[in-house]
Amino acid sequence: MSDEPYDLNERFMRGDEIRREVLGNERIEAAARRDSENDFTRPLTQWATENIWGQIWSRPGLSRRDRSMINLAMLAAMNRPHEIEMHLPGALKNGLTREEIQEVLLQVTAYAGAPAGVDSFSVAHKYFNQLEE
Question: Looking at the whole model, is its pTM more than 0.85?
Answer without folding.
Answer: yes
